[in-house]
Amino acid sequence: MGVRIHFSDLPGLSDALLTALESQTDPFLAPHVLVPNRNLRRWLQMQIAARNGIAANIKFEYLEQGLVGILRNVAPHVQLADPASIQWSLLRSLEATREGSDSIDQFRKASRYSYLFRDYEYHRNRTVRQWQAELESTLAPSANLDIFDFDERVSESEGHSWQKSLYQAMLSILHERGMHTLTELGCATLEGERIPAGAELHIFGLSRMSRLHISILFRLALQRDVHIYLFDVFGPSIPSADADGEIHPALKAVTERDYIHIEANIPDAEYSFQKDGLELIYLFQKGAEFLNNHGAEARWFRHR
C-alpha cells in the first residue's frame, strides 16, 4: 500500500494511467478515477476506448465526491451536511445572537461565514477539529484527521472567540438535525483503520488540493494503492529522473500558519507560475513522512 506520484505532460500521464488500469486483475474491483472536471473525464474515456475498444468498469468522479463516497461506504449512517444546510444553520445562529441589522444583512453574513468555515475545514483543520471536539455531539471526539504538523493557531485579535462560538452554534444545530461535517465523517471512519482494502484510487490532473483532502488520501493509502498524476510544469525545480524514471524531491519551505514559501532557485515570475504545484509537492513530501511512520511509502516518477 502507498502513494505513487507521476509527473508528465497530458499524453504521458494518460499512458501512465492506462498502464496502471491494465494491470488491474480483479474484474470485481472497478478502478476509481477522480478528475477535476467533466471535460477531462470525457477525454480520458475516449483515450481508454481508443486503446482498448471500450471504456467500461471504471468509476469516474470528482475529488470530494469520490472521497465522500468511500467514507460513506464505511459509515452509511452518517449524514453529511450540504452547503445549504450549513448556511441555514449559520443564519439561525446569527439570528440568535442578533448579529446583523436586518435579515438581508444576516443572510449575507451567513454566506460569508459558510465560505470562511469551509476554508478553515480545508486548510486549518486542526483548529476546526478542536472546536468540534468540545461538543459532546461530535463524532470520534478524540480522533484527528489532519496529517500535517503546522502552526495554525488563530489569535484573539482575529476574532477567535467569536468565530469559535458561531461555529459551535452552527454545528450544534446541524447535529440536532442528524448532520455532520466532512471532518467528522472522516474521523469516524479513517481512525482505527476501518476503511477496508479496495480498488486502486487514481487522482488525475488536479493542480490544487486542500490539506484536508490530502490528509484523507494519504490515510486511505494505508489501506489501498493511490496514484496521483500531476502535470509536469516544474523543469529544474524538481530533480531529474534516474534510469528507472524515479525522482526524489527534497523541497524545503518556510511555513507560517497557512503561508508556505518553497525555496526554489528560479525567477520570481517562474515561481509565481509554479507556486501552487510546488506547494502541493511539498505537502505530498509531508504526506510521505506520514506514510513512512505508518509502514507505507510514497514513490515519485517522471515520465517522458
Provide a descriptive summary of the structure in words.
The protein is an alpha/beta fold and 304 residues long. It is built from 10 helices and 11 strands. The strands form 3 sheets. A 7-stranded mixed sheet has the order 3-2-6-7-1-11-8. The longest helix is centred in the C-terminal third of the chain and has 26 residues, at 268-293. The radius of gyration is 21 Å and the shape is globular. The mean pLDDT is 86.
Concise structural overview:
With 304 residues, the protein is an alpha/beta fold. It has helices spanning 10-22, 38-52, 63-74, 83-97, 103-123, 125-133, 160-176, 182-190, 211-220, 268-293; strands at 2-8, 32-35, 59-62, 79-80, 179-180, 201-204, 225-231, 246-247, 253-256, 259-262, 297-302. It has 10 helices and 11 strands.
Strand content is 15-25%
Q: Helical stretch count?
A: 10
CATH level 3 topology of the largest domain: Rossmann fold
Show unreliable segments: none
Mind describing the biggest β-sheet? 7 strands, mixed
CATH second-level architecture of the largest domain: 3-Layer(aba) Sandwich
The best one-word shape is: globular
Query: What structural class should be given to the helix and strand makeup?
Result: alpha/beta
Q: How many domains would you count in the coordinates?
A: 2
Order of helices and strands: EHEHEHEHHHHEHEHEEEEHE
* Helix proportion range: 40-55%
Order of adjacent strands in the largest pleated sheet: 3-2-6-7-1-11-8
Please give the number of β-strands.
11
